[in-house]
Every structure is written in structure tokens, then in C-alpha cells.
Amino acid sequence: MPDTNFKPVVLVPVYDHEHAIGAMVLAILAHPVACLLVDDGSKPSCAAVLRDIAARHPDRISLVRLKQNRGKGGAVMAGFEAAWQRGYTHALQIDADGQHDAGCIPDFLALARQDPTAMICGHPVYDASVPRARLIGRYLTHVWVWVHTLSFAVRDSMCGLRVYPLAKVVPLTREERIGPRMEFDIEVLVHLVWRGVRIVNIATPVTYPSDGVSHFRVWRDNLRISWMHTRLFFGMVRRLPMLMGRKLT
User: Fold this and answer.
1) By the number of CB atoms within 10 A of the CB, which of 137, 190, 220, 240 ranks highest?
2) Residue 219 has pLDDT above 80, yes or no
3) Which 3-state string (H, E, C) describes 94-158?
4) Which helix or strand (DSSP H or E) is residue 83 part of?
5) Distance of alpha carbon 198 from its chain centroid, rounded?
6) pLDDT (tens digit, 9 = 90+) per residue, 7-51?
């Protein structure tokens, strides 16, 4: 039965996307939902843009400023805590760089309202802007996620457009050490599946970004993701009896 106390917020982690964030915020504000911007230690020019945006929409936008850059995952986790403290029940995560279509927000929130304990995950429908190497790398990661969870529940483990039930994810991020940078989107999903959170997948269009700013660092972030997959594999081995029992029942 749908939750009558459903109170969502759109959560946007921002790190030096001053040229794209204004358009993204306007697209978000086209929908009747609050917005929480997390400034992940951006440079002064971006921080000023974010302060100006929040000042112009005080009834709709909250701004959390992190003094030092924590990485995408660190910013999202800080956003979870801020949203939970403000009484929100769900956080719709969307990237600041224009990859995601904010027009999908109502569909994502409708699914979350219908199934408030589920995790709503976007799986991308790409246009011609997607680099082929990204597609190959994503597929390899998806295979590893299927191994870690012993299921095909997660269709895409890297899409940054998703709705988190805060009652499920806030205890997780307080109790487990989840990678704070580009590995976050993958690792948090695996832990949620391990905890029995149901995954609902929804197709969503994705383009490559409007301001041309990417914070993915090939060597550093691929090493982090490789180490994450190692941790998750051994985590799966420890949970194997539970995961197999769940499949049998």
C-alpha cells in the first residue's frame, strides 16, 4: 500500500559544474518537489553560483556546503543525512552535469510512492554521445554486480538517476564503510541488495554532459573500482549461505 507520508527531495551533488547547474535546477523546479544541492567543496566561482541559486529560490532549494571535496559518494551521503534530518523520506539523486533528463522525475517518484521501501534505479537509454569505451566498462561492472549479488536484480549499477528510500540507506551508510568516490553508486546498490531491498528498474535517457566536465580519473577511479569489486566479492562469499537461502525461498 502506498505510503501516505511520502516526502521526497531531489538531491544533486555538485562539484565545479557552475555552467550546467543552473539549467538543471530550472528543470528540477518545473516539478513540485524540493531540491537539496550539496556543494562538494567546489571552487569559489561555482560556490557563488550555488549560493545565488539557493537565495533566489529559498522556499524550494536547500544548500549544504562541504568545506572539502569528499567525492561524489561522500557528497551524496552528506545529502542523505541532511535530507533525513529535514524530515524527507526519499532522495532522488540526479547528476549536476546535465546527463539526466529531469523530465523523468515524476515517473521515478511515482514508482517510489507506490513501493516506498524499494530502490528505484534508472537504466540508461543512450544517444549517440556515449563513448563506446564507457559502454564496455559499464557492462563489465554490471557482470560483477550480478556476481556479487547472485542475481540480475540490478540492470544498471552505475546510473546516477535513482530514488533512495532514506529509511533503508541512512542506516546502511552509518553502519558500513561505503566508498566515497566514483565507486559509490555501485557499492551502495550491492549492499542494499544484500540487505534485501527490492530493486525496481526504469529506463531513462542519458546524454554526455552539457558542460563537458568529467571528474572521472581513469587510473585513480579504476583502481578504486577494482578494489571495491575485490571487497564485494569476498563480502558475497561471507554472505553466500544467506544469498543462496534467499534464492531457494
Assistant:
1) 190
2) no
3) CCCCCCECHHHHHHHHHHHHHCCCCEEEEEEEECCCCCHHHHHHHHHHHHHHHHHHCCCCCCCCC
4) helix 72-85
5) 16
6) 999 999 999 999 999 999 999 999 999 999 999 999 999 999 999
Task: Decide if 76 contacts 58 (C-beta within 8 A).
Answer: no
- Determine contact, residues 66/78, Cβ cutoff 8 Å: yes
List beta partners, residue 35: 10, 61
Find the mean pLDDT for residues 89-113. 95
104's CB contacts (< 8 A; 6+ apart) are 122, 161, 202, 204, 205
Identify whether the C-beta of residue 18 lies closer than 8 Å to the C-beta of residue 42.
yes
Assign domain 8-248 to its CATH superfamily: Spore Coat Polysaccharide Biosynthesis Protein SpsA; Chain A (3.90.550.10)
Domain boundaries, the chain: 8-248
